[in-house]
From TrEMBL:
Keywords: Ethylene biosynthesis, Iron, Metal-binding, Oxidoreductase, Vitamin C
EC number per UniProt: 1.14.17.4
Gene name for this UniProt entry: baco1
GO MF terms held by the record: 1-aminocyclopropane-1-carboxylate oxidase activity; L-ascorbic acid binding; metal ion binding
UniProt pathway: Alkene biosynthesis; ethylene biosynthesis via S-adenosyl-L-methionine; ethylene from S-adenosyl-L-methionine: step 2/2
Database matches in InterPro entries: DIOX_N, IPNS-like_FE2OG_OXY, IPNS-like_sf, Oxoglu/Fe-dep_dioxygenase_dom, Plant_2OG-oxidoreductases
UniProt-recorded name of the protein: aminocyclopropanecarboxylate oxidase
Family of the protein in this entry: Belongs to the iron/ascorbate-dependent oxidoreductase family.
Length: 315
């Protein structure tokens, strides 16, 4: 079993080594659900500024509140299974920004996070088209599939995973698959903790300076009719280091209708007579279920959506 985490150097997607890089990307999407991007076009200077201001914001605005939570979370000395060892807040960018409501963010931090979101949105658009190419879908298919009446949705969960005195009692973030489309993660380059499930084993997502870790959410599993899979992942709490995690979610718009791409269903059917195995539904209906069942297996969610599913178009 090859256990080396897939790393895609985006520079190689131009020029002579493109075919090999596309093959690496295809393998990562089909067999890992995760990959790490280098030379993705977002400048190291911008990433350094995002990191500096995020860590400063945690110290100034969030650390004290987390310490109060932390002293209560472990007070019984027993395993904690209903809460995570994380300090987090959410920045919405598309279709509507919530930045003006986040009163503790300074002007510099807002400006930098807005710029970072715009770059990540462009990167996600480009990645979706690379996935289309590998899947044999027309260019723009996946972006269009994510567009509800107001376009795709884009938001960022900013998290800190502070050092934990009893990591055997609590997870940084319990195991889950992501609900949405494609997720771009700027993670700490020194403090690890992210793990994904690969062939029944937890594998580390290695910290790498200025890289972006990408993973695929449940909606890409549905649209690709299971060719690509969303994969279980978690964050383990550690006794040392305060892990920074900035995870951006490029998701379908709330009223987007999500369903398996007919061409992929047909291809499968030609191979082994399989019909579409995934349902057709409105994304916000899936999210209503996900918020209740995030830390449970995804398969029952897909089954529940089938019970109320919209009919699947045949072409
Ligand atoms: Fe996640």
């Amino acid at each position: 079993m090859d256990c080396s985490f897939p790393v895609i150097n985006m520079e190689k997607l131009q020029g002579g080594e493109r075919e090999k890089a596309m093959e690496l990307l295809r393998d990562a999407c089909e067999n890992w659900g995760f990959f790490e991007l280098l030379n993705h076009g977002i400048s190291p200077e911008l990433m350094d500024e995002v990191e500096r201001l995020t860590k400063e914001h945690y110290r100034k605005c969030r650390e004290q509140k987390f310490k109060e939570f932390a002293s209560k979370a472990l007070e019984n000395g027993s395993e904690v299974t209903d809460v995570d060892w994380e300090s987090t807040f959410f920045l919405a960018d598309l279709p509507v920004s919530n930045m003006s409501e986040l009163v503790d963010m300074g002007a510099d931090y807002r400006k930098v996070m807005k710029e970072f979101a715009a770059k990540l949105e462009m990167l996600a658009d480009g990645l979706l088209d690379l996935l289309c190419e590998n899947l044999g879908l027309e260019k723009g298919y996946l972006k269009k599939a994510f567009c509800g009446s107001k376009g795709p949705s884009f938001g960022t969960k900013v998290s800190a995973y502070p050092p934990c005195p009893r990591p055997e009692l609590i997870k940084g973030l319990r195991a889950h698959t992501d609900a949405g489309g494609i997720i771009l993660l700027f993670q700490d380059d020194r403090v690890s903790g992210l793990q994904l499930l690969k062939d029944g084993q937890w594998v580390d997502g290695p910290p790498m300076r200025h890289s972006i870790v990408v993973n695929l959410g449940d909606q890409l599993e549905v649209i690709t009719n299971g060719k690509y899979k969303s994969v279980l992942h978690r964050v383990v709490a550690l006794t040392d280091g305060n892990r920074m995690s900035i995870a951006s979610f490029y998701n379908p718009g709330s009223d987007a209708v999500v369903f398996p791409a007919p061409t992929l269903v047909q291809k499968e059917a030609e191979k082994d007579d399989a019909a579409a195995v995934y349902p057709r539904f409105v994304f916000e209906d899936y999210m209503k279920l996900y918020v209740i069942q995030k830390f449970q297996a995804k398969e029952p969610r897909f089954e529940a959506m089938k019970a109320t599913a919209l009919p699947i178009p045949t072409s």
